[in-house]
Amino acid sequence: MITARAAATFDPVGRSVATARAFVRDTLQGWGYADVVDDAVVLTSELVTNAVIHAGTAADVLCLRTDDGVRVEVADRYPEREIPIQSTGPRLANHDSENGRGLLLCAALATRWGVEYSPTRKQVWFQLDLRERPVGTRSAGPVLPVDLLPTTDGRVRVAVVQIDRGAAITSWNEDAEQLFGYGAEQVVGKPLGDLAAWPHTPGIGTGIAEALLLSRWEGSYGIRDTNGRVVPVYASHLRVRDTNGEPSTVCLLVRDHERAVLQTPQRTPVSDGGGENRSRDPFEVFIGSPAPDDLDGLLQRTVERARDMLDGDSAFLLLATDDETELEVRATTGLPSARQRFARVPVEAGTGRYGSARMPAVHDDLAAVPGAVPLLNGTGMRSVVTVPLKVEGRLTGSLGVAAEAPGRYSNEEALRLQFAADRIALAVESARLGELERLRRGSLSFLVEASDLLAGTLDRDQTLALMAQMTVPTLATWCAVYTIADQSSEPYLSYVLHEDEDRIDGLKALLSRIDPPDPVPTPGARVWPAPADAAHQAALRVSKRELGLTSTPLSSGIGSTLATASAVGGETVVLPLVARNRVIGMLTLGKPSDDHFRQEILELAEDLSRRAALALDNARLYSERMAISQSLQRSLLPPGLPQIPGVEVEVIYRAAGEGNEVGGDFYDLFPIRDGAYGFAIGDVCGTGPEAAAVTGLARHALRLLAREGFGGPAVLERLNAAILDEGARSRFLTLLYGEMWPQEDGSAILKVVCAGHPLPLRLRQDGTVSPAAEPQPLLGVMDDLELYEQTITLDPGDVLLCVTDGVTERREGTRMLGDDGLIDVLTTCTGLTAGAVAARVLRAVERFAAEPASDDMAILAMRLQEPLNGV
């Protein structure tokens, strides 16, 4: 039965694919279907790409929520384009063909899928079913003497919080108010996720949404109180159904150090039939709980029960890598787990031959065989028993229990532990493979979106910011990007990001005080201990100062230094940014604790670093070429406008095209000799760099020829010859050229030649407008030109307006501004300054049409000033 639906339509443009992915992701996460989000996003991406890119039509996406899963339908409006389907499923015309790849993904990932045709549309749909979640088990603890009961510091408060099926809080008791500071009226109706500080490792573990859907769940997390602090809590979630049949979740929460109040006992006494109690094998209680897809919980409970079963001081569980050459620490108890988590040790290592991980082994005294179990080095453990986890004869992991006293274990304990390990090996391996598959699918979706984001910008600073924001907090707690300008330059710290913004400045200051990592081109991540060492040294100086052992002043406050040390004190890795066979920088990832980065995260970071390096290098090349282009373009513009006595001058210039500062239109105003000034405004056929090249030729030739004493017709005739000499690169040119002689009485004499250009307009003080020249042939077309100049006199207060055809040919549909429209605008400018006249003309052009101008445009306004008080 369909319980909810969401639909959207996406235009046939490339960016719609990313938008469709975001729509499906947000929709499914809002429904609480996190288990199938990554698969749905990948399939939607393929099907929408087929619609908007290959079919070239809009794509209609419909998400349907059902009781047991989700159905997504993607339709396009091109039914004539057949889908390559045969009886055995989708086919490819050849291995290099793109046809049918989206359907191959549907066949591989979806529970069900299909194709439907109608006269106007073609629809591909897929169904993803949710995995069933097993019901948790119950257990009871033994009767304990009073002195063995756990202790508390004062009254134990148990917060009772009830959550509805939408994850919103419906009930909040008095103890919850005392623990976290919120009154019921402040939190009822809000999602629990708004208050929960949930520990999360990308791609694994159980999130808050999943925990609320389980029939029962136990574990630790945090709740933010009214002061913004995180209160560590231990919680027990129980899913129930009310009298109306609606599901809800009851959450019992206590402070984390009081977890014994809620925590399921580790050992369960049972009767052996003779009236005596014996300890049940913890694995009897454990099998089937927790849910198989929660690998972290599965492994942690495994080591806790293994330790209890053999009455040990610590226990550990390692999982084998895919090639079985290394073992990765995944869960420990009684050991410094934060320092060991995700660490890797070779299967064949140490003098004790860790190859014994393939067989049960007992070490009576590790002091006699140093290095036999590298994980226990420096922990104080003396005796240990280890057994392999095997599935179908293949090593999948190792389980061990250790004690501080020597000689604690014998072959009998090894057999008991091996028996338990055999019972859980298949469940652990199944959960591990499920986790790995989810992580890989999540990685695919992550890299697809990262590639889209990085490809969407050519700005260097924005690329650096995207690199950091994609890694924090998804892959690491903090990130720093170093860049290298060239092979002779040192790495430079370019960008720093921490998931806690308050720690960015301190982190940046600490990294600035240490030498950057070496720019090694070797692929893959390598550990960089310098930040952690520097952080530890800073924390040590603070401690000595507080104890009065040193008087050395610190560069920052004690609180800031300790916060920075805690933020950087964990493992730090460096990945090279290599593009076009050159190291252009380093991507640095760090953790606050001593957790190691898991290998899958490092592989994902390596894939991201390759994409980011290419995007960063493309941004660098684009910036360099833009700088060169802008420098060359600026050289084509006049360096500045001269001050002409008694004449106001205003120029407005707009070049068409993004990133262009100079196009086919140009202007110039320059002194020729004492008392004489030349001015020009022209338009080269076309736009862009080719037109700009002729612009440069024209502007420089005009200045040179005018200053050699040639008159207007001679200047233009010689320029015409120079343009024709360009051969295939020549372009015809319209040009208005004139020379001005300001007079002592405030007037000015002008000699003008208008070669195919829009005529200059003269605005008199009485408001009349008239052309100030006659049209003549344009340049760059004929060899023999016979041009002549016209002489006019401008009176004080008169305005001479010169424009290019980007003004007069401004269009809105079939309407055009034209010469008459420009005259109408100019008649309203009586008494205005030259700047105001140019601004009014520009405003009229912009308002004439809603669309941006597609042609270059230049406006040159000159106004003769009126004498003050008759002077």
From TrEMBL:
InterPro entries listed in its UniProt record: Bact_Sigma-Reg (IPR052016), GAF (IPR003018), GAF-like_dom_sf (IPR029016), HATPase_C_sf (IPR036890), HATPase_dom (IPR003594), PAS (IPR000014), PAS-like_dom_sf (IPR035965), PAS_fold (IPR013767)
Keyword entries, A-Z: Hydrolase
Gene3D superfamilies with a match to the protein in the record: 3.30.450.40, Histidine kinase-like ATPase, C-terminal domain, PAS domain, PPM-type phosphatase domain
Top-level division of the source organism's lineage: Bacteria
GO BP, sorted A to Z: regulation of DNA-templated transcription
PROSITE patterns noted in UniProt: PAS
GO molecular function: phosphatase activity
Domain PAS: 160-190
SMART domains listed in its UniProt record: GAF (SM00065), PP2C_SIG (SM00331)
Name this polypeptide is given: PAS domain-containing protein
Gene source species: Streptomyces purpureus
